[in-house]
Design brief:
The structure holds 2 protein chains of 2 kinds.
Chain A lengths: L20 H29 L9 H8 L2 H29 L3 H28 L7
Helix pairs in contact in A: 1-3, 3-4
Chain B lengths: L23 H27 L6 H11 L2 H29 L7 H33 L2
Classes of the chains: A mainly alpha, B mainly alpha.
Chain lengths: 135, 140
């Protein structure tokens, strides 16, 4: 029989309760980040730099873009990925800096509510956009 | 966790593969956090203002006018700069994590990130501010 020694510096944690959540979160940040580089930099280039930059943007410009399913899908993907990527980043920041458990809990609740609100509202607007809406 | 007077373990803080502590690697991480959080806050506002297309064309156009204000226009340059840094440094982080030589070249890659940032932001600043500056100076 081998000698039973505690491994140095290993916290006693029941192995069955460990999950891979943080690993998936870490991987998601890299995969979504790669897609967002294209989606967001493309969006900023078209909106802020190309063809007069921000001065060309008005209701008609948005209507012209969302007439195409390609740009609808682009914006929808960007909305979801940016919210989850950004929300996950802010969750990490809250975990790092909140000192009290209650502060940490309520800041994260506020974060999750804002994420659900923004993703729902943005998705609703993209799917129900009406170019002929009255002034 | 660690008491304040704990002796530093030799070999772990210097030359032991610590990218993120006390050196340039740490500041690149700090800047990554700040640019990320700022962009996330802006995104909240930006989805709300875009949602006005669902209210009326006039309401949307009125709010979009604020984006064309010279001061706000300058903030947009800041936003693009923040997002561009976050994107470039994010690629660097992925290379450090997934490329076998990433950790070895992390410092070179950081200088590359900063060089590309400057090279893109110079023409970027010009094209983003062109109309605003000509309106201010020319006063058509």
């Amino acid at each position: 029989m081998s000698l039973a020694l505690d491994k140095p510096r290993s916290p006693r944690r029941p192995a069955a309760r460990r999950s891979n959540g943080e690993l998936y979160s870490w991987l998601f940040m890299r995969l979504s980040g790669l897609l967002l580089v294209v989606l967001v930099l493309g969006h900023l280039f078209i909106m802020n730099i190309l063809d007069g930059g921000v001065h060309k943007i008005n209701f008609g410009f948005v209507a012209g873009r969302w007439a195409s399913p390609f740009w609808q899908f682009w914006d929808l993907a960007m909305l979801w990925l940016a919210q989850i990527h950004g929300g996950n980043g802010v969750r990490t920041v809250i975990n790092d800096y909140a000192r009290k458990d209650s502060t940490r809990f309520w800041l994260k609740m506020l974060l999750y509510v804002s994420m659900v609100l923004i993703i729902s509202l943005g998705t609703f607007v993209i799917f129900t956009f009406d170019p002929n809406i009255s002034n | 966790m660690t008491s304040a007077g704990a002796p530093e373990r030799s070999g772990t803080t210097r030359g032991g593969g610590t990218l993120y502590r006390g050196d340039l690697g740490m500041w690149s991480w700090v800047a990554h956090r700040i640019t990320g959080v700022l962009t996330f806050f802006f995104l909240f506002t930006h989805v709300l203002d875009t949602a006005l297309v669902r209210v009326s064309p006039n309401a949307y156009d009125a709010v979009i006018e604020t984006y064309k204000n010279p001061i706000v226009n300058l903030f947009e340059v800041g936003l693009v700069g923040a997002v561009l840094y976050h994107a470039l440094n994010g690629i660097r982080v992925m290379l450090v994590d997934f490329w076998e030589k990433g950790a070895k070249y992390q410092r070179v890659m950081l200088w590359t990130v900063l060089a590309v940032w400057v090279l893109v932001m110079i023409p970027g600043f010009y094209f983003m501010m062109e109309r605003t500056i000509s309106d201010l100076v020319g006063g058509h």
